[in-house]
């Protein structure tokens, strides 16, 4: 057999043995974004599209890319329709994607390679996600690498349908891919606020379900903790103004989680004679924590060894 014929034969064998892929997308009124999403997964063997009763051209656009379009009621628990999409997939592997996400070229090739091994014992893959927020790739502030479990063997994974931000629950071994899903997340402030109102109520329900014990102090502690976590612990300051604003917005998000809990408790009244001094004390605690992290960040970012030593001494004195 000639060399070229051998290569052709090997290529055919490899292609026939390669694991096949179903992409599952669930969307509602995403006519501006869905085309680019669908184009990015044109390499898939099958696209399952769940239209959540869109009132715009979303379904029409989807039908240009796949014949497997299913219309479902727009369930507030988003993962119900995603699970429905998984049940309609017919290939060995499933990639779950949202309308505002794109599969990068490098990820496309990495997925093909990952699912081509017929001896593979891995049931699913965590994929890093590159979040574009307010026009900028957010490299810190808790938004990168933002691993998402999205690629898995059919029948091995599903959402539990309890929390809007839950991960797919998987049976079996997992591994990680290196290339990214590109996520065009919040486009503007109104987009952030719209999603916040949807998500915070669900977060409140989950905390209550887990036995959360109401404390008015959490109206201060929740946002303070989230700001510190985003801006300092997860290096949000390295994202500049974007990092600062997003840390503050996420602090506001967690304030709304508290307020949503309070609302569900019929706006429970707090009777404390020393309410103002106690509020002041909580703010003092928050103030102290924030400035401790300012000192730590200053030490961590200082390049001069002598300056680092001086900052450490100042930090100890101020504690």
Describe this structure in words.
- It is a single chain.
- The protein is an alpha/beta fold.
- The protein folds into two domains: 3-184, Spore Coat Polysaccharide Biosynthesis Protein SpsA, Chain A (Alpha-Beta Complex); 189-318, no CATH class.
- The chain contains ten helices and 13 strands.
- Strands 3-2-1-4-9-6-12 form a seven-stranded mixed sheet, sandwiched between helices. Strands 5-13-7-8 form a four-stranded mixed sheet.
- Helix 2 (34-40) links the parallel strand 1 (21-27) and strand 2 (46-51).
- Helix 6 crosses helix 8 (240-264).
- The radius of gyration is 24 Å and the shape is globular.
- The termini are far apart.
- The mean pLDDT is 90.
Shape: globular
Gap between N and C termini, in Å? Answer: 79 Å
Can you tell me the CATH class of the largest domain?
Alpha Beta
CATH topology of the largest domain: Spore Coat Polysaccharide Biosynthesis Protein SpsA, Chain A
Strand tally is 13
Order of helices and strands: HEHEHEHEEHEEEEEEEEHHHHH
| pLDDT < 50 runs, ≥5 residues | none
**Number of helical segments?**
10
Please identify the structural class as seen in this structure.
alpha/beta
From the alpha-carbon coordinates, what is the Rg to the nearest angstrom?
24 Å
Q: Percent range for helical residues?
A: 40-55%
In the sheet with the most strands, the strands line up as: 3-2-1-4-9-6-12
How much of the polypeptide forms β-strand, as a percent range? Answer: 15-25%
Describe the largest sheet: 7 strands, mixed
Q: How many individual domains? A: 2
**Average pLDDT for all residues:** 90
| CATH superfamily grouping of the largest domain | Spore Coat Polysaccharide Biosynthesis Protein SpsA, Chain A
